[in-house]
Write a structure and sequence with these properties.
The structure is a homotrimer. By secondary structure, chain A is an alpha+beta fold. Chain A is built from 7 helices and 16 strands. In chain A, the strands form 2 sheets. In chain A, strands 8, 9, 10, 11, 12, 13, 14, 15 and 16 form a 9-stranded mixed sheet that branches. In chain A, a hairpin with a 2-residue loop joins β4 and β5. Chains in contact: A-B, A-C, B-C.
Chain lengths: 268, 268, 268
């Protein structure tokens, strides 16, 4: 894979602290012509599953050979391994805590390297900020064409991520809400493929919180204003929305409990 | 107009979702040397008028030939047309919902194209995310010099934006607060030109919420700490501020109701 | 110092207003190949000390010759001088209000210039937005190699920043919390050097809010979940944290009062 020269950055560092800017400085000090793109820094602190979903959903839109630096690293300084991955035609750098499992899982050719070659790190590695001292410099070197294999030891036992799975009992397929987006739309873990395979062509209802929805709409502007609707979103999963409203405010579930709320698809 | 190679991005996508990063990936996959600049992504969900004002206020500071991608698109997937505009020496891409009206209105030479040539789009166009599938790729192609006319059909009936207008009754000019900035300053829709034309050189008072202000100050640091003041801001409109304080907290109007609050300029 | 072509931007403008995007447009209109990196725009409105600490902590990670544009400028339009500084191998541009004092203080060779040559400014300078009209264009010109000295008059009396100092009384060293980071960690103003010089090798306790901590840990993952711990952070200062928790929520001090809370290190 030839590097594209682009490095995306994702973290749970937020936008008030200097940590992201430090990583960018480190990268530009090694590769002054790297193109840096912020993917997301508002990931919930320590939420490996949220970060894993975001990067998996987004990386395919980037040119092959892009380096994706992801620092959601609650175990920094403990035993967890620093990791670089080549998979799906892209590079991924971050802690070995499940972040890249959805990407690795889908590419039988994925190569994984436990980062051990300290000449590709900053000279002083603290125990509290590997994003700056290990992952950013490694990302910079990968973006310049240094081969993954030179950076450490091959491994084949990455930490896996256990994501919530779908359950089928009788005529009911049960998934859950995994994310609320900026518009209050409720993103589920039920893909279009799973949905249609389960439903076939008969009638059905979708029950989530106090919503009961009887069809799949084409877009947000379908239906009456304020009415709940279900659609297949642009990432190809079932999403619950309200036309010109925030579904998260109408669903009748407390904000903190929306993620995880069951979504039941019932064959009529 | 020769493209500058710069693309600005504005949206109501916020900073937690992957949508902006997806659009950037799409652009860089088409034009790897595009320079991407975030203009604003914290626009109120669906607020076409806020986005229109921001882009109109800001685009002039960019080099001629810059492409401005603006995705505030509550009607995505319904009948509204996808649009590209060349006006004021710049390019604008987004839904035809009024976003670019303030720019179009001021340039009698503006060209408008209803985007129809799907070879400039992503191969699969969903009904829910035209920002990624139509507007981002079109912006990328424009930044590489593809002529606007090749991308669709010329139109001359864009959706207009109806913005709040000023009213003059007797000795009173009435405008309103259109935006609260990060410092709590209250931006009005009364331009410096309109203000001086109305006032001439006589005495006056400005009444807004529980403020009564008797002069135009030169800068925020004029006057006593905590005192309300009026000034002509850097975008050349009347702004209400409080020296070393947040005007929005002193004005005596509830936060949700500040935008829209009447601003009365009264000749004494 | 040869310019690196990189310009970092810091401000208290937040992410909803167009002010940052305007500054970027001005820079790119002068130097189209400048590389623009956001350092931080969520600095508390008017907080010169917060901005000064952030920039001082971060600039060293950038290549020599980088220009750091910092606009936290509560006195804009009043008498305060516009300033450009060359120090520590980097350039700094912003108001003369103490922002760059920590950088200047550490470099006896620092050159400071009161910006007066209006040919390096935008043609019209308002009294309310020098970030756009003076500092952004000056940063752009510096990034293209225009010599600092050509931009104004040398000065040697910059405004100093008075930062909270440490106090030693008997067996107690007292500092304070200066920042709460995105993880709820409490950053103090006690450097590792000062701590070890004071403590030597004997036993001690650290008292802050309702925490009492008896040792320095190596990383956040040390100790029991929910237990307060002290460590030397990646910027080499004493930091108070809670393993897998937000120290700011456990310390027993109201949010608004955490910054400034005394941190006492007591020799046992």
């Amino acid at each position: 894979v030839t590097p594209s020269g682009i490095i995306t950055l994702s973290s749970d560092f937020g936008l008030s602290d200097p940590y992201v800017a430090m990583m960018k400085g480190v990268i530009l000090s090694i590769n002054p012509s790297a193109v840096l793109i912020d993917l997301a820094h508002m990931i919930k602190a320590g939420s490996v599953s949220q970060a894993a979903a975001l990067i998996h959903e987004t990386f395919v839109f980037y040119p092959a050979g892009t380096v994706h630096l992801v620092v959601v690293d609650p175990g920094v300084g403990s035993g967890r391994r620093p990791l670089a991955v080549q998979a799906g035609g892209h590079f991924f750098v971050g802690p070995d805590n499940g972040l890249f499992w959805p990407v690795i899982e889908r590419d039988p050719e994925a190569s994984l390297v436990h980062l051990r070659e300290s000449r590709f790190f900053l000279p002083d590695v603290s125990r509290t900020f590997h994003g700056r001292e290990i992952f950013a410099p490694v990302a910079a070197h990968l973006s310049m064409g240094v081969a993954l294999e030179r950076m450490g030891t091959k491994i084949d036992d990455p930490v896996r991520l256990s994501l919530p799975e779908l359950r089928v009992t009788g005529d009911t397929l049960t998934g859950q809400i995994v994310r609320v987006d900026n518009f209050g739309n409720l993103v589920t873990n039920i893909t279009a493929g799973q949905l249609w395979l389960f439903l076939g062509s008969g009638p059905f209802r979708i029950v989530v919180g106090n919503f009961e929805i009887l069809k799949i709409s084409g877009t947000y502007a379908d239906g009456e204003q304020g009415e709940p609707l279900a659609l297949i979103n642009s990432s190809n999963v079932l999403e619950i929305a309200v036309n010109l409203g925030r579904a998260s405010e109408y669903i009748g579930v407390r904000d903190e409990e929306i993620v995880g709320t069951p979504v039941r698809v019932i064959r009529a």
